[in-house]
Design brief:
Distance between the termini: 37 Å
Number of strands: 0
Largest sheet: none
Order of helices and strands: HHHHHHHHHHHH
Oligomer: single chain
Strand content: under 5%
Structural class: mainly alpha
Radius of gyration: 27 Å
Length: 436
């Protein structure tokens, strides 16, 4: 009987592992397809030639798509964990949601961490160097020569980073044990380096989020149609049409030798056409879109911003008053053990909305900063180098989102508690304790 029980447990563990792997693959496949359509929407079409550069661009495109899919997965994992916890509480014995357990959530988090390290330290540097490589002088040109140059550049970059760390340890702590610990690359330095990058991502989020919260109203005002109060759109369209015709006549009257004036007039004509398009869109918009959607969205943004600021202020006060409220001193409930909010499912839904709102605000704030303003992608006119930079930036921001959300008190989910999982899922969960 004991042998049969052991075989049954092994079979159950095997089936659970196959099920989790299948679910992870399907979820990532969906994210990869969506990411591919997003990148191809902004990628410059002139890069699509049928030559060696086209193959390089295609490989860089696939690597960038993989990175963007990992970033999307890192953003969606926290809301997915919160909603999974509420579903397990609402339907604890439901047969159709038995696949949704702590082992699956652990596996998803560990895969997100693994792929984030892979993209950040291997795939994205490889894509950038591969895109910029031409092959060493004296070698036959081709894909192999460019791959060789890329690998050499990656090795030199890794040696440079290790050398900087070695020198820093020698200056800070001249200890033989600390110098020998440098050889422990996989278990210590790579997780530590990723933690440092996550810390920089948190600082970047804390810098970008306030800017994004203030810019969200301006961005939504540009995307939506504002109410027409004491405005005559027909008169404005008529005036802008006359201005467009006047600029067009001036362009037709100038000779081709006056290149400076022609460039200025063409830029002015493009601005006039853009303004005319916006006015025509406002005129064609329905009364519901003008008078109801715009005020409703603005009120919703105001409410979400106020709630976010209020929650952060309350959490800061708790941290100042109660030492146990620190993230390192808390041990929240695991998956399916207790609700994360006093309001149950409604409170969890509110947390998810706020997390998405903070992520969108941080991205808007990131592109609103003057230093990163050139990173803004343009439809059908974004180079692969700029796409790689955008993917790396979004990956850093998304990897820091769970840390910032927990630090600010937006959620109290503790993923290392697997007491609710069955005995068959415990080996898988315990195997990932160190990563979490």
């Amino acid at each position: 009987m004991e042998g049969q029980d052991e075989v049954s447990a092994r079979e159950q563990h095997f089936h659970s592992q196959v099920r989790e792997s299948t679910i992870c693959f399907l979820l990532f496949a969906v994210l990869y397809i969506v990411s591919y359509f997003i990148i191809t929407r902004y990628k410059r079409k002139s890069d699509e030639q049928e030559d060696e550069d086209a193959i390089v661009n295609r490989i860089s495109l696939f690597l960038s798509t993989f990175t963007l899919a990992v970033s999307a997965g890192a953003v969606l994992l926290l809301p997915f964990s919160i909603i999974s916890n509420e579903i397990l509480l609402s339907f604890p014995q439901n047969y159709y949601i038995q696949w949704l357990n702590g082992s699956l959530i652990h596996g998803l988090w560990n895969l997100a961490s693994l792929f984030s390290n892979l993209c950040l330290f291997v795939l994205m540097p490889f894509a950038f160097f591969f895109l910029e490589s031409e092959g060493f002088a004296g070698l036959k040109r081709g894909i192999r020569a460019r791959i060789l140059e890329t690998l050499v550049m990656l090795i030199l970059l890794a040696l440079l980073i290790l050398g900087i760390v070695w020198v820093a340890l020698a200056l800070i702590d001249n200890d033989a044990a600390s110098m020998e610990s440098l050889y422990d690359l996989w278990d210590f330095y790579l997780p530590y380096l990723y933690s440092c990058i996550s810390l920089m991502g948190c600082l970047l989020l804390l810098l970008c989020t306030p800017v994004g919260l203030s810019r969200m109203f301006t961005v939504m005002g540009q995307l939506l149609v504002k109410p027409t109060i004491l405005e005559d759109l027909d008169e404005q369209i008529y005036i802008i049409t006359l201005e467009e015709e006047a600029i067009q006549r001036r362009l037709n009257g100038l000779s081709s030798s006056v290149e400076h004036n022609i460039t200025e007039l063409e830029q002015e004509l493009d601005n006039v056409k853009t303004l005319k398009t916006k006015l025509e869109r406002r005129k064609k918009a329905s009364a519901w879109e003008r008078n109801l959607v715009y005020p409703a969205v603005m009120v919703l943004l105001l409410i979400e911003t106020s709630i976010s600021v209020l929650l952060v202020a309350c959490n800061i006060l708790c941290l100042l008053v109660d030492e146990t409220a620190m993230p390192k001193g808390t041990r929240g409930p695991g998956i399916g053990n207790a609700s994360l909010s006093a309001f149950g499912f409604v409170g969890a839904a509110l947390e998810i909305i706020l997390i998405f709102y903070l992520m969108v605000s941080s991205v808007v704030g990131f592109y609103s900063l003057r230093f990163f303003g050139n990173f803004i992608p343009k439809k059908d006119d974004t180079t692969m180098t700029k796409i790689i930079g955008n993917c790396v930036s979004i990956l850093v921001l998304s990897s820091a989102l769970p840390v910032m959300s927990r630090t600010l008190g937006l959620h109290k989910l503790h993923l290392s508690d697997t007491s609710r999982d069955s005995e068959t899922t415990k080996p898988s969960a315990n195997g990932h304790q160190k990563a979490l």
